[in-house]
Design brief:
The structure holds two protein chains of two kinds.
Chain A: H1 2-19, H2 24-30, E1 33-36, E2 42-47, E3 53-60, H3 74-82, H4 91-101, E4 104-109, E5 114-121, H5 125-137, H6 143-161, H7 164-177, H8 190-194, H9 198-208, E6 215-220, H10 224-234, E7 256-263, E8 268-276, H11 285-297, H12 303-311, E9 318-322, E10 330-338, H13 342-358, H14 363-375, H15 384-396, H16 403-412, H17 416-426, E11 431-438, H18 440-443, H19 447-450
Parallel strand pairs in A: 2-6, 7-11
Antiparallel strand pairs in A: 1-2, 3-5, 3-6, 4-5, 8-10, 8-11, 9-10
Helix pairs in contact in A: 1-15, 2-16, 3-6, 3-9, 11-14, 11-17, 12-13, 13-17
Chain B: H1 2-13, H2 15-23, E1 35-38, E2 44-49, E3 55-62, H3 76-83, H4 95-102, E4 106-111, E5 116-123, H5 128-139, H6 146-162, H7 165-177, H8 191-196, H9 199-209, E6 215-221, H10 225-236, E7 259-265, E8 271-278, H11 286-298, H12 304-312, E9 316-323, E10 331-339, H13 345-361, H14 366-383, H15 387-400, H16 409-414, H17 418-428, E11 434-441, H18 462-467, E12 488-489
The chains are: A alpha+beta, B alpha+beta.
Chain lengths: ~450, ~500
């Protein structure tokens, strides 16, 4: 279904964005120009003349972390409402114009930022940019459109509820982040999203869509100087800046394994096992990247994949990751296995967490991780959308325009001792949150099997 | 769903031709720049230089998919694909992927009803690595750990189908739409069939279908094409052919009356999937008009079904039309929708019928037709933004018989008239040619009869974005194209 596909795509883009690693080669090819616009926005441009098309993305400091308590889902409803035409153009006319050009315009939310983006073939790029600018500076925000998008959002939440993987992720976020800014899904909950009003949306828009705090990235068949002038012209409005948000306390899990069981009529247990993690600004980020690659981030080369999938045949997919963004995120291992195998898989995972803490990794593992992380980067700067995401990441997380040149060194410096040290510091096999969406009578998950310090289920 | 995925690849597929059209180059598009060679052992090789980044992609297509299977052994094509990563006479299990990763590359594979594709994306300087590894596993297949890999595939089926109401519904619709043709069964296979497969089955299957005469190698990227062809000939040229693969002879008889299927499944919301038998590129020039008719009906937020069902009547969460003209044998045009809470599938079906009747009664207006063509054209250009997609297009078209189609696709679309659209709607989107599938939700709780919400937990995808965050190796390319190009990825 289209809705599912769009979500999957957004997820993929964001994952690429935050997990990207760079080697020197592509950055020189990117030739990023950084310009400050008169309204304070930062503009990043990479000329890419291979294809007659242009991609733009504007990041606003308006992610779901900005949702007020009780109004979870507001950032997303605001973004969706901004896609519904301008004061001059109804939603239908707006969509008609975009489709006629074969262009795409989307305003999408992740937990940190809202991204207003477009892609167009060259001959329609100016008009598509104009429509995007109009939807941001002069949006319709009509009551009827907002009500319709609210009802879409609630229906979407109910549709997502059917997917056990989503169910597990939402429950896990709640458990780890509690009521913090990352504790809810971007769509919010059916009851909170369902109560949002047109004024909530208009206020959120007025508050957070400020060009002085925005970053604009452009990649395409453009001339940097003329696109700068055009963007000054099109996006001159929305003055002002957004005040910084106070950083919440880093999540932590008390000793024991805290099990949240959700009963479902499913063939597989959907399991998430994890604890608190790091922010993107944490200097241990690169050591953790190497450690996690070896543990569970490295696809078929990772230990978790080898042990749980290749050897035991217990799962089709298993991976681990640190969600490192603006504020400290989570560490999580995610997998699905038939209900009856849940305990067995969990035991294998916990043993791997312990092993990477207690023993140094092998030479070949370290070298492979470094080579992959450094060598694979150019593969992920293939498309314009990826280049745009990369430029935004560099600016939003303060990585510096020389990040590309520095990255190989940052990874190459990581030693076996570093890997073991960050495993000891950031993995907590004796203090974990576990969410299991499963047919519980078949799964019979037993925390006591997993640890001697198990606590009772707190479902 | 396979139709979704394949269609995305088709859109992508056509990029290059659009380039030529758009930039007004007098001479045709990229097929002129493709170097093609058929080696003495029958292996077809296509290479295309693209120097935009220091990267190259290698795809090895085998003309084998679930279409080549027989009753009782469904899923063998896909299982065989998995086993291709479990070692050869020279390398141990998973060595393939480890070596690619150590060279900074990505690799994966997927199986569709029609073909199986193995691919690597890698720094240009390391292209010889996947080249020799692919040749090795074509010639020296010797997988280890058969039982655990079979267990992995069974987990994959649970994940993709058993626990996914929409996929489960589509599987039933396909099974009802095709009675004689192998498109009847799912690419991943029926669970009991998978369970019964043996290592000997896989070895036998590989011996028949994984031969040079049954394969096409496509490379796109930053390399010297002439040199690469020589290298490919050295790596693959000495590989011997097995027996000739038997042709697929089944032909689906015409359908003379509507089929209906009902699936009771753990879910909260009902869903609808209807599928009409439709010709493909190989069987009819109507394929282009059907593609355009599908665009008018269901592509974009200004399409007829989206405007009517999602925006105006607000009956469904989403609605989608899918059609893939590149299937080997005539396949289906799909219309699928997920209902909003409280909406009945029959009411949505009636509304879709009304929209189809309108299209049958009157040809689309000039602007609407042009919009559909513009969407195709832009999709072409966007698709060419990725060398992997370029390679996919060339491979798929070559399997249909001629990679030059890449430069004729848009012209075919452009020729479609409003009257053609009306004609194909009248001819193919008719009730007697369709299968209607309705998902009856039985609730999410075990042993629940009715349905309804569960507990206090709310679900949505927010964390998905985060868990990819630091260090999770992004899955290789296809995932980005909407979960992929064929069907069942590795």
């Amino acid at each position: 279904m289209r809705s599912t596909l769009v979500k999957a795509t957004v997820v993929a883009v964001v994952a690429a964005l935050t997990s990207v690693a760079l080697s020197a080669t592509p950055s020189s090819a990117l030739q990023i120009k950084r310009i400050k616009l008169s309204n304070g926005a930062v503009l990043l441009v990479s000329e890419q003349h291979q294809l007659p098309m242009m991609s733009v993305s504007i990041a606003f400091d308006a992610g779901s972390r900005r949702d007020p308590a009780g109004k979870e889902g507001l950032a997303e409803l605001t973004a969706a409402s901004l896609e519904q035409g301008t004061k001059q153009l109804s939603a239908a006319d707006f969509n008609q114009k975009i489709d006629f050009m074969g262009s795409s315009i989307s305003i999408a939310v992740d937990r940190d930022y809202t991204y207003a983006s477009m892609t167009a073939i060259k001959k329609y790029a100016p008009e598509t940019l104009h429509l995007l600018a109009q939807s941001l500076e002069d949006p319709g925000l009509r009551e009827s459109d907002i009500a319709r998008k609210r009802s879409d959002q609630v229906a979407g939440i109910k549709a997502n509820e059917e997917e056990p993987g989503y169910a597990a992720m939402v429950a896990f976020a709640k458990q780890i982040f509690d009521n913090g800014p990352y504790g809810h899904p971007t769509a919010g909950f059916a009851d909170t999203a369902g109560k949002l009003t047109p004024d909530d949306v208009r206020n959120f828009y007025r508050h957070y869509y400020k060009m002085g705090s925005a970053t604009i990235a452009v990649a395409g068949d453009v001339d940097a100087t003329s696109i700068e002038a055009r963007i000054e012209h099109e996006l001159g409005g929305l003055p002002g800046t957004v005040a910084a948000q106070a950083e919440p306390a880093a999540p932590s899990v008390a000793p024991g394994i805290h099990v949240q069981l959700i009963d479902r009529n499913v063939a597989q247990a959907n399991l998430i096992l994890g604890s608190g993690g790091i922010a993107r600004s944490n200097p241990d980020y690169y050591k953790l990247q190497v450690m996690n690659y070896i543990l569970g981030g490295g696809g078929f080369s990772s230990r978790l994949m080898r042990v749980v999938r290749s050897k035991a045949g217990l799962a089709y997919s298993i991976d681990s990751g640190f969600s490192a963004s603006k504020f400290p995120g989570a560490f999580a291992v995610v997998l699905q296995t038939k209900n009856q195998s849940a305990d067995e898989a969990l035991k294998l995972i916990i043993a791997q967490l312990r092993q990477i803490q207690s023993q140094p990794v092998a030479d070949r593992e370290l070298v492979s991780a470094r080579k992959y992380l450094i060598g694979s980067f150019p593969l992920r700067l293939d498309r314009q959308s990826q280049i745009v995401s990369f430029m935004l990441q560099v600016e939003l997380y303060g990585l510096g325009l020389d990040y590309a040149e520095r990255y190989p060194k940052l990874i190459d410096e990581v030693t076996k001792a570093d890997v073991q040290q960050v495993a000891q510091k950031y993995l907590h096999p004796d203090a974990l949150d576990l969410v299991a969406v499963a047919n519980q009578s078949a799964a019979k998950i037993s925390a006591s099997v997993l640890t001697t310090q198990a606590t009772a289920s707190k479902q | 769903m396979n139709h979704t995925n394949l269609r995305l690849s088709v859109l992508a597929a056509c990029t290059a031709a659009a380039l030529a059209v758009l930039s007004g180059h007098a001479r045709a598009g990229i097929s002129d720049n493709v170097k093609y060679q058929k080696l003495p052992n029958g292996l077809q090789v296509l290479v295309l230089e693209n120097h935009k980044a220091p990267v190259a992609t290698l795809n090895v297509f085998y003309r084998v998919g679930s279409r080549n299977e027989v009753f009782g052994e469904t899923g063998i094509s896909h299982l065989c694909e998995h086993l291709m990563f479990r070692g050869t006479r020279k390398y141990g299990p998973e060595e393939f992927s480890n070596i690619i990763a150590e060279n900074g590359g990505e690799d994966n594979a997927f199986t569709s009803a029609d073909y199986t594709d193995y691919f690597e994306v890698i720094n240009r300087d390391h292209l010889s690595v996947p080249l020799s590894l692919e040749a090795d596993r074509m010639a020296n297949f010797a997988p280890k750990g058969f039982d655990s890999e079979k267990a992995v595939v069974m987990e994959e089926r649970r994940l993709r189908t058993e626990d996914s109401p929409q996929e489960a519904l589509e599987e039933q619709v396909e099974a009802a739409a095709f009675t004689a043709h192998p498109y009847h069964w799912p690419v991943i296979g029926w669970m009991h069939d998978i369970q019964g497969l043996t290592l000997d089955d896989a070895l036998r299957y590989h011996a028949v279908y994984y031969s040079p005469q049954n394969a096409i190698v496509v490379a796109v990227g930053d390399f010297d094409g002439a040199k690469l062809i020589k290298q490919l000939a050295e790596s693959f040229g000495a590989i011997h052919n097995g027996p000739k693969p038997p042709p697929v002879t089944e032909v689906e008889p015409p359908q003379d009356g509507e089929h209906r299927v009902t699936l009771r499944h753990a879910a909260n919301l009902p869903a609808l999937a209807e599928a009409f038998h439709a010709p493909n590129y190989r069987s009819s020039t109507d394929a282009f008009a059907i593609e355009v008719a599908g665009e008018v009906l269901g592509d974009g937020k200004s399409s007829r079904l989206y405007k009517d069902l999602v925006v105006d009547k607000r009956m469904v969460v989403d609605v989608n039309v899918e059609y893939d003209m590149t299937s080997f044998d005539p396949n289906l045009l799909w219309i699928a929708a997920q209902m909003r809470p409280g909406v009945k599938a029959d009411d949505v079906l009636a509304e879709v019928d009304r929209e189809i009747d309108l299209m049958a009664a009157q040809p689309p207006a000039a602007a609407e037709l042009q919009k559909a063509k513009n969407l195709e054209e832009a999709g072409f250009v966007f698709g060419q933004d990725s060398i992997f997609q370029e390679a996919m297009q060339l491979g798929v078209y070559q399997m249909l018989g001629d990679y030059h189609l890449i430069d004729h696709y848009l012209a075919g679309i452009d020729k479609v008239t409003a009257t053609d659209v009306q004609r194909v709607i009248r001819q193919y989107l008719v009730k007697k040619h369709r299968t209607v599938g309705v998902l009856v939700p039985t609730g999410l709780l075990p042993h629940e009869a009715g349905g309804g919400a569960i507990g206090t937990v709310h679900y949505a995808p927010a964390l998905g974005a985060e868990e990819g965050a630091s260090g999770v190796r992004p899955r290789p390319e296809p995932v980005d194209f909407g979960a992929n190009l064929g069907e069942v990825a590795r």
